[in-house]
Amino acid sequence: MRRIFALIACMTMLTVCFSVAAEEAASHGPILVVVFSATGTTKGVAEKLAEGLAADLYEIIPEEPYTDADLNWNDPKSRTSIETDDPMCRPAIAGELPDLTGYETVFIGYPIWWGDVPRIVSNFVEQVDLTDKTVAVFFTSGSSGLGSSMKHLEQQAGVGNWLEGKRFTSRTSMDELMAWAKELGIEP
Ligand SMILES: Cc1cc2nc3c(=O)[nH]c(=O)nc-3n(C[C@H](O)[C@H](O)[C@H](O)COP(=O)(O)O)c2cc1C
User: Fold this and answer.
1) Of 61, 186, 60, 182, whose CA–CA distance to 135 is shortest?
2) How far is the CA of 63 from the centre of ligand 1 (A)?
3) Structural domain spans, the chain
4) What does CATH list as the number for 26-183?
5) pLDDT tens string 148-165
């Protein structure tokens, strides 16, 4: 009889251990979706991603908003042209930066500017602490790919486990975004 009790106790303990391990494998902890978007395209993607993953959303808002003239890439004297020409330029971010403590995964979304990441996003990654965070980037563009934008951000952050970024558009569906997150091993 004692042996039977011992066996049942052992099996119960094993079941508990396995279910805890399975839960841990499936869980990725709290997720933050960070986005910079000058004309709303990347923000739309970020909102869908955050909703699908039940994640928090933080928008990088420039202290000085970008006007249409600022965004004119045909004008070599426009604000964005001048910022792009200066690798050390770090446009100021309005308000407080988010506290990343407690987040395991941070998505960072941005539009491609001149084949690269907007300088204000570089400012963001240099100011927050991404130590031990899983970082996944996503971007929108007219047609350009990721280029060196993610590599630059990774270098500027100096820490974090960076996953390969992906391009989306204003037509990207929630299902596509969730499929991408699943590919990365991140599920709600
Ligand atoms: C200053 C500037 C530079 C851009 N440079 C590129 C580029 O190099 N390649 C590209 O495909 N699209 C480029 N675009 C287009 C944007 O990446 C695209 O419209 C993006 O979806 C805008 O996102 P947003 O609405 O979130 O700001 C540029 C746009 C601006 C304003």
Assistant:
1) 186
2) 20
3) 26-183
4) 3.40.50.360
5) 999 999 999 999 999 989
